[in-house]
Design brief:
CATH topology of the largest domain: Rossmann fold
Distance between the termini: 33 Å
Largest sheet: 6 strands, mixed
Radius of gyration: 23 Å
CATH architecture of the largest domain: 3-Layer(aba) Sandwich
CATH superfamily of the largest domain: Glycoside hydrolase family 3 C-terminal domain
Structural class: alpha/beta
Strand content: 5-15%
Number of helices: 13
Strand order of the largest sheet: 5-10-9-8-6-7
Helix content: 25-40%
Number of strands: 12
Order of helices and strands: HHHHEEEHEHHHHEEHEHEHEEHEE
Length: 398
Amino acid sequence: MVKKTLSAIIAVLLAAAVLASCAKAEKASSAQKQTKSETSPIPQAVTVPQETNSVEQVLASMTTEEKIEQMIMPSIRYNDNGDREYVTKITDDIRRSLKKHSYAGVDILLMPVTTYTTEGFRQMDKYIRELANLTDKGEIPIKAVDAAVTRILTLKDNNGLLDTYESSDIEERVEKAVSFVGSGTNHDKEWELTERGITLVKNESALPLTNSDEKTVVLVPYDEEITSINYAVNKLTADGKLPSGAAVEVYSYNNKTAKKVLPLIKGADNVIFVSEIYSADGLKNDVSYMADALTERAHANGARFIVMSASLPYDAARFQSSDAIMLAYMPCSMSSDPTGKETEIEQYGPNISAALYMMFSEDDAPSAKLPVDIPELDSTYSFTDSILYERGFGLTYE
């Protein structure tokens, strides 16, 4: 049960990773280690024939490796213990899995590899070459590959991604791309898509937070996520959706004990606890027990205790004493406030910001459904075979 559920959440994280594309710990590590000479190579794009942009012509012009490149998506993989790991070698088990997926008509193959280092790209190239060799040998049917790539190219064609460029000047094309990628328009669409993925699984008349003159304390796991919370509050204020007289305070509980965090919620009407669980061990660590103490104190003070799950959603089963649980799925933060910037905005994760925004906005009620089953926990906070929240479950504001 644990293995299946932990594997299934990869699909959720991928959806958010496409929007935000960051891994906090890995990014920090690579930033320290990577020098200018180690800059990750840019993957070469498939050349589209200038005389046509038809899917058939593009497919006919591609090598086997180029076809496989279309099917690969960098991803995150978790082992049976819920710990992140990466593929460094294609084993017999992986080969068998790839063959089964191909015969089953799967279009996108997930490649658990880091994309922040040159070595990561080398591993991806190796992965692609081996898949291409298996295809050329007939172990992976070329018809299945062609069918998958045709579907992928058709999707791109329907969205204008196979259109021929008006100019052959590469500098002009790069300038055009830079003016749009990471632009305000881009991030507006990103925000919209993120809101559509936020899932509410518990709400005992706690959300939305529309009462006037209330104090809300938000507790985040890391200092850099304070910017994400402030951005959401500023956006709520600018959009006229923050209740009159409402005050929002945000603190990081990173490396703090419950004794130091508990005083921070004094006088709060609402406490929002941002939880980031990356493995089953996180369900029974000091942070989770601190959340228990915060829940008890908040309720004793007559305050609502709300959990925002910002990573793997299985902590929804852990915090059943809370008044509401909202799933954001991706804890990527902001390096700076993007407000007012129209171009050259650094990549950031909107999930935490969007979830907080929705907690206060009755007009932005959650509508998403769970993509995985959330199992119940026993008295030791270990997974059981019983399901607490079924896949497809999701609440909205009434």
